[in-house]
Specification:
It is a single chain. This protein is an alpha/beta fold. It folds into 3 domains: 30 residues; 130 residues, Periplasmic binding protein-like II (D-Maltodextrin-Binding Protein, domain 2, 3-Layer(aba) Sandwich), CATH 3.40.190; 93 residues, D-Maltodextrin-Binding Protein, domain 2 (3-Layer(aba) Sandwich), CATH 3.40.190. It contains 10 helices and 12 strands. A hairpin with a 3-residue loop joins strand 2 and strand 3. Helix 3 packs across helix 9 and helix 3 packs antiparallel against helix 10. It starts with a helix and ends in an 8-residue tail after the last helix.
Length: 264
């Protein structure tokens, strides 16, 4: 009798374990879009050091144009937004490893990045801008040959610095690059034009900065997702089209850029 009880217990445990494994595998086979809808959370990531797009405010909360865009997308999905932050140069690796559903951090569409991830349609447009101190003797970007230009590591702005014949000096984010320029430790910064405008208006010492030259190039900013997430890509594209059409992205832009619409 005792042996029968032991045998029954072992059989029950094996069946329970098999059911658990089966359920886990079934869960793992869900698409990213299905997981988002089932769990009720859309998890995205940005650097957290890129004002006014995504940065920490005085309450240590992540805010900005990207965050509000994420909230609008999550609302359209009918789920909550979880906005996480991580170092810029590790965002794509983190996405591919499954730590996030998407990168929503002002990432520009480039041929190089398209080899690793897929991009939605753009949610805003901007471009690369050179900024120097107002007391600098540099008045043209092509005068920067051999000079030190601060750029955020892992960004396309590093290529811009090389194209000018300058020496790119790498920092974690643009809070650091612009602070280095204000303190006179580098000759210039290359970053997004809208970041420069915001810094000139609101950053301590920003009044001592000056943009020089035209945009080095324009950029289209979009959400990056894993290449296999075709269903999520289609869904996000539909939502972004509607946010453009309904004027939601324009309203978010007006909020963060003093009436300027960067979504068009």
């Amino acid at each position: 009798m005792f042996n029968k009880i032991i045998s029954f217990a072992l059989t029950f445990m094996l069946l329970s374990f098999s059911a658990l494994v089966f359920n886990s595998c079934a869960q793992d086979e869900r698409t990213t879009l299905e997981k988002i809808m089932d769990d009720g959370v859309f998890t995205v990531v940005g650097s957290g050091g890129y004002p006014p797009f995504n940065y920490y405010d005085e309450n240590d909360e992540v805010v900005g144009f990207d965050v509000d865009t994420g909230l609008a997308i999550a609302e359209a999905l009918g789920v909550d937004l979880n906005y996480e932050t991580s170092a810029w140069d590790g965002l794509i690796d983190g996405l591919k490893a499954g730590h996030y559903d998407a990168i929503l951090g002002s990432m520009a569409i480039t041929e190089e990045r398209l080899k690793e991830v897929s991009f939605t349609i753009p949610y805003y447009y901007s471009g690369a801008q050179v900024v120097v101190r107002a007391d600098s003797d540099i008045v043209d970007p092509f005068e920067l040959m051999g000079r030190d230009i601060a750029v955020a590591t892992g960004t396309t702005f590093e290529d811009d610095a090389y194209n000018l014949g300058a020496n790119p000096v790498l920092y974690e984010d643009d809070n650091q690059t612009l602070l280095e320029l204000i303190n006179g430790r580098v000759d210039a910064v290359i970053t997004d034009r809208l970041v420069v405008i915001r810094a000139m208006q609101e950053m301590a010492g920003g009044e001592n900065l000056m943009m020089i030259g035209d945009l080095l190039r324009t950029e289209e900013m979009a959400l990056a997702i894993r290449q296999e997430d075709e269903g999520l890509l289609e869904k996000l594209n539909d939502i972004i089209r509607n946010l453009h059409w309904d004027g939601v992205l324009s309203q978010i832009s007006y909020k963060w850029f003093d009436g300027e619409d960067i979504s068009q």
